[in-house]
Amino acid sequence: MLNLEKMSTARIVRDTFIDMALYLDCLFVLHGTDDILIEDIIQCMEDGYAKAMKNLKKGGARKPKTKRETAVDRFLKKLDHDEKSDRGLSVG
User: Fold this and answer.
1) pLDDT tops 80 at residue 10
2) Region of residue 75 (left: phi > 0; alpha: psi -120 to 50; beta: else)
3) Which pLDDT score, from 0 to 100, does residue 84 have?
4) pLDDT value for 4
5) What are phi and psi of 88, to 5 degrees?
6) Are 27 and 33 within 8 A, CB to CB?
7) For residues 18 and 21, what is the distance between their CA atoms, to the nearest angstrom?
8) Could you say which of 11, 28, 56, 76 would form a disulfide bridge with 33 (CB–CB 3.0 to 4.6 Å)?
9) Which of these, 19, 17, 7, lies nearest to 57 by C-alpha position?
10) How far apart are CA 19 and CA 63, in angstroms?
11) C-beta of residue 71 within 8 angstroms of C-beta of residue 48
């Protein structure tokens, strides 16, 4: 059962990275993103995918944290902080 769960999780992770790459590709085309920036972003995604799959293969049951802050939560907080910082830079 555990092996099937790992396979399902690996498939979900893989499918998620495929979706993210396709979404980013659309954004890159729509906004005419510089190739150097695209390469950097995709390299980060490749690194993240490799790390996720490596951690998945390690396995092992972990105790869930009582208070969970996801990577998405941290990223959204950073974006919110950056937006607040940008407000102070308004030209006028």
Assistant:
1) yes
2) alpha
3) 75
4) 62
5) -75, -10
6) yes
7) 5
8) 28
9) 7
10) 29
11) no
78 versus 42: the higher-pLDDT residue is: 42
What the block records as the tokens of 65 is: 């944290």
32-62 in b/e form (b: 16+ CB < 10 A) is eeeeeeeeeeeeeeeeebeebeeeeeeeeee
**CA separation for the pair 43, 39 (Å, rounded):** 6
List the structure tokens of 44.
Answer: 């980060």
How many residues are present in the chain?
Answer: 92
The pair of three-digit structure tokens given for residue 26, joined into one six-digit string: 């659309």
Q: What percent of the chain has pLDDT over 70?
A: 78
pLDDT digits (tens, 9 = 90+) for 19-42: 999 999 999 999 999 999 999 999
Which residue reads 């396995």 in tokens? 59
Which amino acid makes up residue 82?
D
**pTM as predicted:** 0.62
